[in-house]
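Show me a record, fold above all:
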Amino acid sequence: MFWKFQNATDNSKIFRFLQNTALSALCLCCQGRKLNMAKGSPKVQVLYDLCKKTFTPSGTPPPSPQAVQKLHSLLDTFGPSDVGLKEESSDDDRGHGFFGLNQLNRVVRWAQPITYVDIYECDSFTMCIFCFPTSSVIPLHDHPGMTVFSKVLYGSLHVKAYDWVEPEIIHDSKGPPARLAKLVVDKVLTAPCGSSILYPKSGGNLHCFTAVSPCAVLDILTPPYRENLGRKCTYYMDYPFSTFGNKAQISEGKEEYAWLAEIGTPNDLYMRSGVYAGPAIQI
């Protein structure tokens, strides 16, 4: 999946640089957390087997509620060691904390790269880990036609997520074309905590991640991003509902709505690939 992010950012200097950077499988650290071999843990194998049994390349038919709940319950039990991560320290002086920066020093906010660790990928699903240093950000983006299971393995992560308002409401009279969305998640998740699920049309399909502290997230995406099949990762800028007036004629709860305008992949999105060092999966 890392290459899906990379292919979506052909014009990004960051990714062109990262593509030419040699990464050591033996020495790469996950932002202060070493990727260590974990012995005797069957959970990641069980997770793989369940995903293989449950998901299809097209996403149809959708998995049954029973299968979703079984996967959800299994993810709830995961910790860092189950995927080869070791939490060394909660201290991190490379960031400035979630509330320590403003728009003027946004470059500093994203100065540390996010590490992407690919566990397994096929036409039906992707299993991966994102390791965040403090204050790093994955900007607001979508998951078209996809279901995503997420589990914070350690640390604290702020999640802000929207779903499109249906039927769609478009504003294009001034400024960039924007579509109305409703805020469904705006909270900090701190491990240990339960896993979360977003669906194609509910649960916060468009989301933004900001690391409150060093943290790691285990993700399962199904079906995976495939631009040739219409599942392209698109980034957005969110504008307060009041920005374009009350075209949608919403009388109450206006703070729960926002206009989302499509943008190109941010050039300052720092991401590098890491090496999975957890229990080997038997394919």
In short: The CA atoms of residues 184 and 234 lie 19 Å apart.
